[in-house]
């Protein structure tokens, strides 16, 4: 077990490079099941979730060869259509193998992911969509068993905007017979990235990035090469790291247009943001202004940035209201932020954050991926030293975050945690 030890107070400066996107890379890796052959994926981040996805693919019979940030996935000889509980429970996104396995083998057996720290996160809309494409679906002993001789195109109207559900159906429909129309589809950039690799494989997809996606099923797909888009949540986390420390940093390999909702709110808070020479400069103000946010599906404010933005509001002038509208239990960071001396009151899906003059370093515990990031941010701004335990959550989604922050001048170290569980 390891923990992070952070001595707060340093203003960040210098340059940092954003890694490839976790949430784009996971479905992209899984999409290779659809097309037998050797795929080359570049700009891949080194993350625990990527290793889990590789294990899922290897268990299906794929050969995976990773060097640097380039991973070659050969799906020619897949010989299994099952994803087991031990892997799916550690990473919910592995449930996305369902659609591609059904499309390739006519059957799939995949463990139900179960809930997680931030909410129940059912997959009912994935299953409803696959059933609409003609799959026969049963639930047996915690597993989804799905069968379909040949999936058939259909019109699917999602009850709510679901990123995973849209990705699942996009992949399942790529080789289905006839046309599929996904309505009220999620519009996240990661869906566009997935559609791009599917199109390179030979899929006929139109409208990814809008709420209506048309997929004309094709006979078969071929192996492709693709570079994963930059991680917008990692980039957003660095933007707030600069803002919260009153820093002045330049961020490389980021798409500012993927982060409009966050950028506008940061500018409202007094942060200066400029995009020049393929770098985004983020300069924190002397004093942060209070700003309200409501999380929404893209292009709204991302739920995956809510915890980090709350950390920033902890030292704002005045009170802000933060509403979480995507997940029902995504305020676990609140009780830990209180340990830094923050003033936060939660009621239902809203948290009222009254800015305090100074946060004070404390021992805290990470409870999920983005909660971990919010604690790092609070610790960077706090007086004295903080210790953050259970950082294994962090390693699921941030590549070498302590090294990148140290490169920007933060006093941060990863050390063994002998008191951990
Ligand atoms: C690996 C990955 O890309 N994860 C992201 C993805 O998660 P994920 O794809 O799991 O999130 P969804 O967009 O599906 O979830 C949005 C909401 O829909 C609900 N829902 C979803 C599917 C379903 O069948 N039924 C249902 O009720 C969920 O419980 C949640 O309340 O999008 C989330 C929302 O932007 C992000 O926070 C996650 O980082
Ligand atoms: C919630 C997240 O990821 P996942 O869907 O993999 O749990 C996240 O990236 O913040």
Automatic annotation (TrEMBL):
SUPFAM superfamilies: EPT/RTPC-like
Binding site for UDP-N-acetyl-alpha-D-glucosamine: 92, 304, 326
ANK repeat start and end residues: 177-210
Pfam families found in the cross-reference section: EPSP_synthase
UniProt keyword terms in alphabetical order: ANK repeat, Cell cycle, Cell division, Cell shape, Cell wall biogenesis/degradation, Cytoplasm, Peptidoglycan synthesis, Pyruvate, Transferase
Subcellular location: Cytoplasm
Catalytic function, reaction form: phosphoenolpyruvate + UDP-N-acetyl-alpha-D-glucosamine = UDP-N-acetyl-3-O-(1-carboxyvinyl)-alpha-D-glucosamine + phosphate
GO cellular component, one term: cytoplasm
Span of domain Enolpyruvate transferase: 7-405
Protein name: UDP-N-acetylglucosamine 1-carboxyvinyltransferase
Natural source organism: Citrifermentans bemidjiense (strain ATCC BAA-1014 / DSM 16622 / JCM 12645 / Bem) (Geobacter bemidjiensis)
